[in-house]
């Protein structure tokens, strides 16, 4: 085990014509991030020639903007089957959706969250695959299969809860790819940018164990888990995390696990739980050469205003700068491993 304490200098965000977005919070204005510029033939992208229709979901009246799609109240609450279901025959966080208007014009999107408010279902953290945003109106919605081509060779699986996947963390893999374009992401889930992962919002350590057979082989795994166990015992969270690592390393002995120390949170009771869990885990991991500790939480705490600088207003989830720090630290470690 190696414990990485890194001095990181954050460079200002560069500007380019290629942009991506994450909501600062559901329904709030968008925050702008910019992609690093790679040669066109080296960019990860969708191959629209591979499009296959999975299911016709019917016609819907939609209110559309950059970041949300609001379904007319006539359709009621349609979000019930969504939460981490694995069938792509219905609306699903992992799915790709094609909408067609009365002029037979097509648009494609993914979505990162769903809520039900004022008798309307609202999809948020929308990613338009071709960057053109349609007008509100009546649309046929199809679920489709579309190949996403990655150009990297170092396989990485990001495992965790909402801090690995939800809201701005949807961009974690995109930021990682910007820092280390030779990465190739794997997992049974898919984020709004098309990258596979293994993050599920609200997961406790036992829930990661329950779905561990879905986690594929990878050269590297990042593991950021445990904060949702804060109302349970530290002993169970500790044992479950150790078991997650043991199962993965037994199945894939050539792999390396990067244990990410907990992101600080403004909930002091939760934060104390996370700190105690981290201390026990890092002490145990010292004897394991297949596990490295990446001190994400320590790096964030170096800034006395960490909650304002790195977190959303909920005091728990990363904002765009928090995601950037995570990605940069992880990429530095993998680069050092590959030398």
Automatic annotation (TrEMBL):
Keyword Hydrolase assigned: yes
Molecular function GO terms recorded: hydrolase activity, acting on ester bonds
Keyword list, A-Z: Hydrolase, Signal
Signal peptide limits: 1-18
InterPro entries noted in UniProt: Ester_Hydrolysis_Enzymes, SGNH_hydro, SGNH_hydro_sf
CDD domains in the record: SGNH_hydrolase
All residue ranges annotated as the SGNH hydrolase-type esterase domain in the record: 159-323
Protein name, per record: SGNH/GDSL hydrolase family protein
Organism per entry: Cerina litoralis
């Amino acid at each position: 085990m190696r414990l990485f304490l890194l001095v990181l200098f954050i460079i200002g965000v560069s500007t380019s014509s290629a942009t991506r977005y994450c909501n600062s919070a559901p329904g709030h204005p968008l925050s702008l991030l910019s992609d690093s510029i790679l040669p066109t033939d080296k960019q990860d992208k969708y191959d629209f020639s591979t499009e296959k229709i999975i299911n016709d979901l019917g016609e819907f009246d939609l209110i559309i903007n950059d970041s949300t799609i609001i379904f007319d109240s006539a359709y009621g609450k349609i979000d019930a089957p969504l939460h981490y279901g694995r069938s792509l025959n219905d609306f699903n966080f992992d799915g790709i959706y094609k909408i067609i208007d009365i002029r037979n014009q097509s648009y494609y999107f993914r979505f990162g969250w769903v809520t039900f408010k004022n008798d309307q279902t609202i999809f948020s953290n929308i990613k338009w695959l071709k960057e053109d945003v349609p007008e509100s109106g009546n649309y046929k919605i199809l679920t489709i299969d579309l190949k996403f081509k990655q150009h990297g060779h170092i396989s990485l699986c990001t495992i965790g809860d909402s801090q690995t996947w939800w809201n701005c963390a949807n961009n974690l893999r995109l930021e990682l790819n910007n820092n280390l374009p030779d990465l190739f992401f794997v997992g049974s889930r898919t984020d709004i940018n098309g990258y596979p992962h293994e993050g599920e919002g609200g997961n406790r350590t036992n829930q990661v164990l329950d779905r561990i057979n879905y986690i594929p082989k990878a050269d590297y795994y990042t593991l950021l888990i445990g904060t949702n166990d804060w109302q349970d015992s530290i002993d169970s969270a500790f044992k479950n995390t150790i078991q997650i690592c043991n199962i993965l390393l037994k199945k894939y002995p050539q792999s390396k696990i990067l244990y990410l120390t907990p992101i600080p949170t403004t909930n002091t009771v939760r934060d104390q739980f996370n700190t105690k869990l981290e201390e026990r885990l890092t002490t145990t991991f010292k004897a394991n050469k297949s596990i490295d500790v990446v001190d994400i939480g320590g790096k964030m705490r170096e800034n006395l205003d960490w909650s304002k600088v790195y977190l959303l207003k909920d005091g728990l989830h990363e904002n765009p700068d928090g995601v950037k720090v995570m990605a940069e630290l992880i990429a530095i470690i993998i680069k050092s491993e590959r030398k």
